[in-house]
Write a structure and sequence with these properties.
By secondary structure, the chain is mainly β. It is about 10% helix and about 30% strand. It has a domain of about 60 residues. It has one helix and five strands. A hairpin with a 6-residue loop joins strand 1 and strand 2. The chain starts with 7 loop residues before the first strand and ends in a 21-residue tail after the last strand.
Amino acid sequence: MTAAPFARPFRLVQRHGPALDGAEFPNGRVVLMDDPDWGLCSGARSLDLLLRHGYPDARIEWADQPAADAQPDADNVPAGPVP
């Protein structure tokens, strides 16, 4: 018996507005916390549908991949001159 795959967490980064956390499930469906203070969520059959119909100008950052615009941490900057 194989273990079922887990949901894949992501962050939806809006052009104007707060970053929102969500998850994509193994069947392709997604859930997004629109208002964490009140527990309000949006769901869609796919991430593409969620973006197209609710957040067309947003971009997705996956928890298991480095962000495209991520800056290195001060602790992870190599010492000495950069070649």
